[in-house]
Amino acid sequence: MRRYLFSLLALAVTALFISAPVSAAEDPADQPSAPVCLPGVYLDSQNECSVVGPAAYLTNIAYIESQIANQAERFPLLDESFGETEFSYFRVEESANVIFSSYDTAAANTAATGSLYKGYTFAAYTRVVEEGGKKLFQLSDGRWMRGSAASYHATPNRFLGVMPTEQPVRKFGWTLKDTPTLKAPGYYEPRSGNVIPRYTLIEVFDHRKVGLSDWYMIAPDEWVYMTQVALVYPAEAPPEGVENGRWIEINIFEQTLAVYEDNQMIFATLITSGSSRNYTRPGLFKIYEKHESTHMGGDLGTDSAYYLMDVPWTMYFDERRALHAEYWHDHLGYKSSHGCVNMSFPDSDWLFEWAEYGDWVFAWDPSGQTPEDPKLFTQHLDED
Q1: Tens digits of per-residue pLDDT, 298-335?
Q2: From the CB of residue 375, how many other CB atoms can be counted at a distance below 10 Å?
């Protein structure tokens, strides 16, 4: 009996720190004459008792578990048929960066006509011919490179964003790596024994600050540190200046993107935006140029030069900064671009089909860490 009373007391104390769902419990001040509910689960809002203390705690746990159970219904994945392209890609070996105008000259290794740009260079090809144990690649522009030019083959990221069926009521996002959860917020709390795989969809059911660190509860008694996840913040209103209820929202701090139509979120995903040397600029912009694919390069002729053939589903919105697919890295959820907003192949394909010329793009940093001085945002990208 003593142990039972102690357990009830512990539950009641815990309940003071965990908010019960609106649909499951009401403020006892609104029901001054209602008796206190016995410990149990009360998900029906028409309860004749006051859901407080242990009952509130147990009800809240049941509510969270029910929300987790139907996440796939509320956040269905983008159709995986998006993201198909005619191109394949490889990193160009600098010592073999040689271009030929025809198959015959490439096979004979004679009459080379030049090379692709030197540096961090990727080629796009549409055809591979293998003869005598040697490979020849026909590039997207019709020219040829020998197999020795392929340092390694790039595999485009097939990550799939989600398409919420209704406006989300809380922050949600994805784990950025295999993440052990803790039983309580704080670095030194015991582990729960559960490890959440990378790119798992999660929702934030509670938020605590321990010192200067933010911790999120993603399941009952399971907490993760803020840098282990990338979150989407559902917009409560359109950005200032957007009056048609249609916009793309880029959260630079969290490295996420959300799409709104008729003021309701219809899509959300992970991105890679500009690094601290090449920020993605905060502000409100418009899509002014679209390409099914286009070559990109920057810092050409320098030690930091890069050149990327046929970047798919490219949409420019801020000078030479664009939304586009990426095939040369797997950094979703982390800043590493030259100012553009990189996405997976399926996500970029879907967004390209949805977006129209003149659509709003709102980039913001809720942390305030990204500078806004126009002098810092020079042109980083040069279309070939």
Answers
A1: 888 788 899 999 999 999 999 999 999 999 999 999 99
A2: 6
> Could you name the CATH architecture of 170-232?
Roll (2.30)
Going by C-alpha positions, the residue among 171, 172, 224 that lies closest to residue 195 is: 224
Provide the pLDDT for residue 30.
Answer: 52
Pairing of strands 321-325, 341-343: parallel
Inter-residue long-range contacts of 9-12, CB under 8 Å, 24+ positions, other chains counted: 11/39, 11/53, 11/54, 11/57, 11/58, 12/53, 12/54, 12/57
164: closest CA among 58, 259, 93? Answer: 259
Highest CATH level, class, for 247-383? mainly beta
CB 360 within 8 A of CB 249: no
Domain limits, the chain: 1-12+35-70, 88-154, 170-232, 247-383
Residue 50, token pair as written in the block: 């006051």
Tens digits of residue pLDDT in 170-207: 999 999 999 999 999 999 999 999 999 999 999 999 99
Strand, helix or coil for residue 190:
coil
Name every residue whose Cβ is closer than 8 Å to that of residue 63 and which is 6 or more positions away in sequence. Answer: 20, 21, 23, 24, 43
Q: How far apart are CA 265 and CA 55, in angstroms?
A: 34
What does the block give as tokens for 1? 């009996």
135-138 contacts, C-beta under 8 A, 24 or more apart: 136/103, 136/106, 136/107, 137/90, 138/103
Q: pTM higher than 0.85 for the full model?
A: yes
